[in-house]
Structure formats: structure tokens, C-alpha cells
Amino acid sequence: MSDSRGKLTSQVEVKTNADVFHELLRSKPHQLSTISPNNIQDCNLHDGDWGTVGSVISVNYTHDGKECVSKDIIEAIDEEKKLVKFKVIEGDLLELYKNISVTAHVETNGETNLVTWTIEYEKLHEGIPDPNTLMDLCLQLTKDIESHHLRSNEISGQEANTKKMVSSIEIKVHGDVFHEIYKERPHEISGICPYIHGVDLHEGDWGKEGTVLSWRYTHDGKERVLKDIVEAIDEANKSVTFRVFEGDIMDLYKTFVITLHVDTLGERNLVTWTLEYEKLNESIPDPHSFMELLLQEIKDIESHHLK
What we know:
Number of helices: 5
Organism: Oldenlandia corymbosa var. corymbosa
Strand content: over 45%
InterPro entries: Bet_v_I/MLP, MLP-like_ligand-binding, START-like_dom_sf
Largest sheet: 7 strands, antiparallel
CATH architecture of the largest domain: 2-Layer Sandwich
Order of helices and strands: EHHEEEEEEHEHEEEEEEH
Domain Bet v I/Major latex protein: 3-152, 160-307
Radius of gyration: 23 Å
Distance between the termini: 73 Å
Structural class: alpha+beta
Protein name: OLC1v1013368C1
Strand order of the largest sheet: 1-7-6-5-4-3-2
Number of domains: 2
């Protein structure tokens, strides 16, 4: 019986603050589907509160090339040691293991930040393999979290060179129409605006943060393409933010972020576009013509819904 029990431990050094990992795994695991979408497809709170011992979360993930599910209870949180322990109580893993738990421990030794994963398990029978590929998944998750936060820090460092352009337009239809279209159904825009030739889902799901979209459009008389990620959706403020990371526009700008914000002031409905950008060099023009394209989209969508 003793041979059926085991423990795997693996440690990896990271370049970002160890507190980032503890905070994310303790209180914000639902963000993992955005940070590592190839590994974690969804993470939902099933019972309790985020960051609380005894809470139950459900996770949809890919393991060994298969879509899997797991329901876990947060068995322990140690703030002093920066440790979080998850015990699996339901799902695919329990078809192989009588019990299995995963612990993430983060620490700083001098200038070195370390993330240690520990998997404790008991096999249903001796023919079951050790969960080495599950450990690989945990290590890949760590790499993805590190990469995500290094990119965020790089973006923060660029903010001093970032410029902003804002333009608002009053519309005669309810503002929710625009928020809904750009959040959930941007693929419909090509059927409304003739200069938008296609909006395709490249990765993720419509209406979710972290989703990647590819756009084909005509701008300044030329057919162009861009790929962006849905960086933020704010239901309370009715805003959607897209961060462009690939395409023609990146030939001119180091960073390019587009935000749509819908606001209702009494009987007035306003759509506001905000462009935040950093030029590759000072000779690059400000994106006035791109803003005009966005404003024209709003006018055409308005006309379409007034018909």
C-alpha cells in the first residue's frame, strides 16, 4: 500500500516578484484562463470566496492533449510562507488517484525568486503512472504567468512615452447596442461597414477577456490586417479595450491600444473612442485617420440600427 503513495516536487526560478504568483494562485486563479489559455480554459468559483480556505473552485484545463475538469477545495493558505494548497475532490484526476493535492509555494532568497510545486498523491492501483505530466503542466503555467507579468511590466515602463487621442460622438440609438456588438459580436461589423472585410475569432471565445481577434479592413485606401487581444471588458462602465499586437499598424507604433466606452447621460447616448499609442519614431504621424475610421464605424452601425 505504501508504494501507491507518492510525492513530486519541482522548483523553478522566476524573474518576477514571487508575491505575484502567491496573489494570483490564492485570490485570482480565475485570471489563469487569460494568462495561459492553452492550458487553462476556465476557472470558476463554485463555493465560498476567492482567497479563502474551504472555498471550492472548478477548473477546465488541457492535460496530455485532452480536455479535463477538476473541482478543488482550497485546503490551506499560509501567508507567511506564501503557500496555497489545493485538494482535488472531483474530476478526471480521481479516475487515476484515490487522492491528490497540489501545493504552490513561493519564496525569495536574496535576489532569487523561487516557485515550488508539490504534488502529493495516492494511486488507485500500481499500474497508474506518477503524475509527471501534471507537474509539467504546473511548470508551464509558471512560465506563462512569468511571461505575462514581464510583458505587463514592460508596458508599464512604456507609459511615459504613450500618447492618447480621445473622440466622442453622440448617437440616436441606445448605447448598449455598441457595447454589445464590440464585446460579443464584432464579426457582425463586416456586414454593416463595407470597409471592414472580416473579423475572425483567432483564439478564445467571443465576449471574453484574453480572446484574440483578427481584422481585415481598408484604411487610407489600402487593405490592411491587424490582430488584437481583448484586454479588458468592463460591464459597469460599458467599455471594451483591445490591444493590437500584430499587423500593419505595428509598422508605425510600438504599442497601440483601442478602447470603446459607451455612456448614457440623461437622454444622450455617447460613444467614446480612446487611442493610446507609442510611435516607433517621432516622424510617425498621430493616428487621426484611424480615429476617423472608428468614428465612421459608429455612424454606420447607428444607421444600420435606425433602419
